[in-house]
Amino acid sequence: MTHDETTSILANRLGWTEAKVSKLLQATAEVMGEYLSEPGTLSLPGVGQLISHKEREYISLNPETGERTLMPPAVELEFKLSPALKEQFSEMREH
């Protein structure tokens, strides 16, 4: 589903303009990005959880030059599907 399709569907369901829905989605993405830039868990009721954690920094070695570079810690993002949604998907697969 594209951004335009999502915006259109939500606008119709909420009775809002597409511009208002687009602003809401943009603000939501910004807040989520800011929150998940540090280790933590963001719960999306009925959908699941986004879990961010930092990987350890490490030293990378260039095999051609032998140059060592300190690689900064990366933020990894994991998604865990909610049990209810997982059940719904498994039921769909059975049919």
Strand order of the largest sheet: 1-2-5
**CATH architecture classification of the largest domain:** Irregular
Which geometry do the CA atoms define? extended
Structural class: alpha+beta
| Mean pLDDT over all positions | 93
Domains (count): 2
CATH superfamily of the largest domain: IHF-like DNA-binding proteins
- Report the strand count: 5
SSE string: HHEEEEEH
Overview in brief:
By secondary structure, this protein is α+β, with helices and mostly antiparallel strands. 45% of the residues lie in helices and 28% in strands.
Structure description:
This protein starts with a helix and ends with a helix. The model has no long low-confidence stretch (mean pLDDT 93). The chain has a three-stranded antiparallel β-sheet with strand order 1-2-5. A two-stranded antiparallel ribbon has the order 3-4. Strand 1 and strand 2 form a beta hairpin. Helix 1 crosses helix 2. The chain is built from three helices and five strands; from the N terminus they run ααβββββα. The chain has 95 residues and is α+β, with helices and mostly antiparallel strands. It has two domains: 36 residues; 53 residues, IHF-like DNA-binding proteins (HU Protein, Chain A), CATH 4.10.520.10.
Keywords:
alpha+beta; HU Protein, Chain A; extended; 45% helix; three-stranded antiparallel beta sheet; 3 helices; two-stranded antiparallel sheet; 95 residues; 2 domains; single chain
Describe the SSE topology.
Blueprint: H1 3-14, H2 18-36, E1 40-44, E2 48-54, E3 58-61, E4 68-71, E5 75-81, H3 83-94
Antiparallel strand pairs: 1-2, 2-5, 3-4
Helix pairs in contact: 1-2
